Amino acid sequence: MKLSILVKAMKRNNGFRYDYCIAECSEHFLDDVCKPVCIDKGYSDGGCIGLAPNFKCCCKK
After folding, report:
1. Which of 1, 23, 47, 60 has the largest count of CB atoms under 10 Å?
2. How many domains does the chain have?
3. To which H or E segment does residue 49 belong?
4. Which backbone phi and psi does 50 adopt, to 5 degrees?
5. Is 30 helix (H, G, I), strand (E, B) or coil?
6. What's the average pLDDT block by block, 10 residues per block, for the chain (61 residues)?
7. Tell me, what's the pLDDT at 7?
8. Strand order from edge to edge, sheet including 56-60
């Protein structure tokens, strides 16, 4: 995993509440896929968060 993805994920999770994790993120399932899935499920935001290599797509109320 790239360091920039790790830093981005750590910033996103630091102080913000992503309440519901729906899937494992992968090379083909990153923020650009995760966020629209969360929004379609009624959440306000979503992104791949966590520490490499265990990123999860989590949604925010």
Report:
1. 47
2. 1
3. strand 45-49
4. 125, -170
5. coil
6. 48 64 93 96 93 90 89
7. 44
8. 20-24, 56-60, 45-49
